[in-house]
Amino acid sequence: MPTxxxxxxxxxxxxxxxxxxxxxxxxxxxxxxxxxGRWREVGEWLRDARVAAYLLDQRGHGRSGGRxxxxxxxxxxxxxxxxxxxxxxLRTDRPQLLLGISFGGLVALRYLETQPSDPIAAxxxxxxxxxxxxxxxxxxxxxxxxxxxxWPTLAVPLGLDPEHLSRDAAVNKAYGExxxxxxxxxxxxxxxxxxxxxxxxxxxxxxxCPLLFLLAGEDRVVDAHLGRAFADGLKGAVxxxxxxxxxxxxxHDPQRDQAMGDILAFVDAQLPPV
Length: 274
Hints:
This protein is α/β, with parallel strands linked by helices and about 270 residues long. It has helices at about 40-50, 75-90, 105-115, 140-145, 170-175, 185-200, 225-230, 255-270, and strands at about 5, 10-15, 25-30, 50-55, 95-100, 120-125, 155, 185, 210-215, 240-245. It has one domain (about 5-270): Alpha/Beta hydrolase fold, catalytic domain (Rossmann fold), CATH 3.40.50. It contains eight helices and ten strands. The longest helix is centred in the C-terminal third of the chain and has 16 residues, at about 185-200. The radius of gyration is 17 Å and the shape is globular.
């Protein structure tokens, strides 16, 4: 179980899926309330394609340190990712790519906008959380305005319906029963995430590396149309793959082979010919 130390001293844990001679290294960032273990199949898939995969438990999630469901500053996540990249470089010198899933996609996009001096070869952004696909209850909206300054660490139930994650009922059942899924979000975290969503949209022009967006046409968790509008507004090398019938977790869909094939083709296109 590899570990690293974040800039503020928090201990972070990640999983490594390493082939004998990797062609590239993909750093995977999971969704909110999620953890790296739920994406083991993705790590194995990449490893079998001779791509090293490193799946981080983000702070406050899974086996990593930090208060569950809380963020002090969104920028801490960017420092965590930079430290994660350094840890991966000690294991392989192959080109680094990012794979950000939902909330992890938001983190990856903000990182790409703010770290131009340490370039990433490319990034895959899967169903980025730029806005929700549903309206939150009135009491949560009020709490989101009042509580960040009064009780920022309060653990508020996330209220995510597992049935909205995937068309695979087994995936949804496992998520609902997974003790490592914490299922909460604090007012402080909500404030930081809302800030980051606005910042990502405003600063998209700063992204220079090639991007692949994977978007689910039947996403009931995040607003896929916001993700598509953002991708369409970028000026660089951007590919968009739209899966009309898939739910939020396209990499956990019964037809996940299609999405993984798109990722591997994109990775291949970023690497020099052998």
